[in-house]
Write a structure and sequence with these properties.
seven-stranded parallel β-sheet; 745 residues; six-stranded mixed β-sheet; Rossmann fold
Length: 745
């Protein structure tokens, strides 16, 4: 922008990361060498401090406007161009409208934390190793000593990749830093640097690994590839071990060949290392990881690589959905049904749902993959909004799984294990098979009880029992995280006999080791995988045969391939079968199918055992005998009859406070405001206690809104939210609005 044009005054609307559904206006009347635009960061005075905000709108006005006197000036323009492309700015506006969200919170969700702290959006230098002319001569003349095995391997790897190997990828090719340093000293290799990697062209290595696609896989690849130049949503509905990942890889291969980028979302951080390795083994391409376990600097650099086109493949968890891509080609959501794609704190959103919106804005295909698709996704298939592609058979010709339901009524149990299950475990171990025991309850026991008077310790902040952890003899609340030393004597009656009641993974591990002392046992839950590389080490030891019995929580059910597991046992299904949540049957059916899918994935026969006191439960038999697809069809019909989502649309106000009365007063005030618009067909349920009324010292109540017409729900919120924010009672509670609420959090 020229000096002449910048002398006029601009009103700049700025989104600031505060929980208010509005932007804040500032002015600027000084010359600039660039054009201020939406999506740039600015530093602005806010109260007694300064904050980093994002420009939402720029308006040129008359410098004599009286309103300008009430505005503060922009302190500093942090950027000279928007951080995000137009498609993601459009997604930002869509999120604000659909979720009725504070603009600052929407930006906070989309941008790396480092950028919100004012860090420069500058990509660090990258480097690449190539053979020098001397190196090529050394290979041709075979001048390396015979005992220099590592150097010989490194030279051959570089010879196989004439475009070079990115420095960060040396480990993938098993090239130690000392080896590359020695070769550089001999001037047989050379390193080149660049300010940015530029648009990389992925080079396929060891293409397809000799894997032949079956007919169903080939049809899926061809059908999605036909839509590369436009938006279309697909569901890859494939049974466990049907080769969904191979379909992803073939599609990404085609995307890279077109000079475009692929975004792959996985549900858990624990799955990213194995996904990364499989992709790196297939492609000599720039693969970027993005997840919450990385440092702010690492996340920012990964984000910038994708934005500048220096990364071919981006793999990440939920928040990676918002990474900008210079040349977007496809979005893939693996295990699309997983609840991990739902943000349950702060700004609430569904990464799966937003992926469909983003793909539409980008005009690229989006592929949702799952062996147990969500009811919402299957409903959209029925409505022809999503095209379903099926993989009905396992990629390898395995024998079908055999299922056995053990009725625990009147059974003799050894700490939760029935005698028939113990015999089955022994049989599979004797046949050199691995055994997976699933129990979705970590800790030693749910309750530590006084044997004499029945006293047990409850968390005063949550009104729930503390879980007993035996290893370090402590009690922990799994809702708020508070912990304390477990008492050795009862505080109430001084009885020295404190009895752990119930079963957790820690206690199950102790029991299994006592029954099978010769077996090597590994427990995988949140307690044993806190260390950064712990999950990766567990997976490696299981695949290498160092573990006989693996036991743990739902971390084991998500996407892992354990070829030697022949027996899977779900230790206690009772808690999953009965719940106040109408989605409980869906979650249980998904859990059974996903956990069962860990068995019989290679050429060995797989067996699944389910222990329950409710062996006649219809959902159990439907999933076992007819499969998940038939269960889902019935679930869709049942929800239609009961007018539950996805046949209706919902929003929820939830409020919390250290005292219960302010919560009730606020939600009743909200209800009064909503009642003014009774002509809109939106039903109100509540105010009512949340599933966990007290959590982390706060009392929680909620008001649910439900309607058959989504547009009427949004209209009601548009008409009332400003009045609700101005309520005096709103200042005495912490409250939020959640669209499409799921479960209780």
């Amino acid at each position: 922008m020229s000096d002449e044009t910048t002398s006029s005054t601009l009103i700049i609307s700025v989104a600031i990361t505060v929980p208010l559904r509005r932007c804040f206006d500032y002015y600027w009347n000084q010359p600039l060498t660039f054009e201020p635009a939406a999506g740039m960061r600015v530093k602005v005075p806010f109260g007694k401090t300064f904050k980093i905000g994002i420009i939402q709108q720029v308006t040129q006005v008359d410098a004599n406007m009286p309103e300008l006197k009430e505005l503060k000036s922009i302190h500093l323009f942090v950027d000279q161009k928007p951080l995000l492309p137009a498609t993601l700015q459009r997604l930002n506006q869509w999120m604000i409208r659909y979720y009725h969200a504070p603009p600052g919170e929407a930006w906070q969700t989309m941008l790396p934390t480092a950028l919100l702290k004012g860090e420069e959006a500058t990509l660090a230098r990258s480097s690449c190793w190539r053979l020098s002319e001397q190196g090529k001569e050394a290979i041709a003349n075979n001048t390396l000593p015979k005992n220099a095995v590592k150097q010989r391997q490194a030279l051959q790897a570089l010879a196989n990749h004439p475009d070079g190997i990115v420095h960060e990828k040396l480990k993938v090719f098993d090239i130690p830093a000392t080896t590359i340093k020695s070769l550089a000293g001999k001037k047989w290799v050379e390193r080149s640097f660049s300010d940015t990697s530029g648009q990389t062209k992925g080079e396929l290595t060891n293409q397809n690994h000799g894997i032949q696609l079956n007919d169903a896989q080939q049809i899926a690849v061809d059908r999605v590839a036909e839509s590369f130049a436009s938006y279309q949503a697909f569901l890859l509905f494939g049974v466990t071990a049907s080769g969904k990942t191979e379909v992803y890889l073939r599609l990404i291969e085609k995307v890279i060949a077109q000079g475009k980028q692929a975004l792959v979302l996985v549900p858990e951080i624990g799955l990213t290392p194995q996904t990364l390795k499989r992709f790196q083994d297939r492609f000599n391409a720039e693969v970027t990881l993005l997840h919450s376990g990385m440092t702010e600097k690492q996340r920012l650099q990964g984000w910038l690589k994708a934005r500048e086109g220096a990364s071919n493949i981006i793999i990440g968890t939920r928040s990676a959905l918002f990474v900008p891509m210079a040349n977007p080609g496809i979005i893939i959501i693996d295990e699309e049904h997983d609840m991990s794609f739902r943000q349950q704190q702060g700004f609430r959103y569904s990464a799966r749902d937003l992926a469909l919106v983003r793909a539409n804005f980008e005009q690229i295909p989006v592929l949702l993959g799952s062996a147990t698709p969500s009811v919402e996704t299957l409903y959209n298939v029925e409505k022809n909004k999503i095209i379903q592609l099926e993989l009905k058979h396992k990629a390898q010709q395995n024998r079908p799984l055999s299922f056995q339901v053990i009725d625990l009524k009147n059974q003799v149990l050894r700490q939760g294990l029935s005698l028939p299950l113990i015999e089955s475990i022994r049989k599979h171990l004797d046949s050199s098979g691995q055994v997976l025991l699933f129990l979705n309850r970590r800790g030693y026991a749910p309750v530590l009880l006084c044997h004499q008077c029945g006293w047990s310790q409850t968390c005063q902040r949550c009104d729930v029992h503390y879980t007993y952890h035996h290893q370090n003899h402590y009690l922990q609340c799994h809702h708020c995280g508070s912990s304390r030393q477990a008492p050795k004597v009862c505080p109430q009656c001084q009885c020295p006999e404190m009895v752990p009641v119930g079963l957790g993974t820690e206690r199950l591990e102790e029991t299994v080791k006592s029954i099978f002392p010769e077996a090597k046992v590994a427990r995988i839950d949140r307690d044993t995988t806190r260390r950064k590389s712990a999950m990766q080490e567990f997976v490696s030891s299981i695949k290498s045969g160092e573990v006989d019995i693996l036991l743990g929580t739902q971390m084991l059910a998500k996407g892992h391939h354990f070829p030697n597991v022949t027996l899977v046992a779900l230790i206690d299904m009772d808690g999953a079968l009965y719940s106040a949540d109408f989605r409980a049957p869906e979650y249980s059916a998904q859990l059974i199918t996903q956990v069962a899918g860990r068995a019989g994935r290679a050429n060995k026969k797989g067996e699944v055992i389910i222990q329950t006191h409710h062996s006649e439960h219809p959902m159990l038999h439907q999933v076992i005998n007819q499969g998940y697809a038939e269960f889902a069809k019935l679930a869709i019909r049942e929800r239609m009859e009961t007018e539950l989502p996805p046949h209706s649309f919902a929003a929820m106000f939830q409020a919390e406070s250290p005292q219960i009365q302010p919560v009730k007063i606020f939600l009743n005030d909200v209800k009064e405001i909503l009642d003014r618009y009774s002509d809109l067909k939106v039903e109100q349920l509540g105010p009512a206690p949340a599933l966990y009324v007290k959590k982390a010292g706060k009392f929680r109540y909620q008001l649910l809104l439900q309607t058959a017409r989504r547009n009427e729900l949004h209209r009601l919120l548009d008409l009332t939210l400003q009045d609700i924010e101005q309520l005096a009672s709103a200042r005495k509670v912490r409250w939020r609005l959640e669209m499409d609420p799921v479960g209780d959090s």
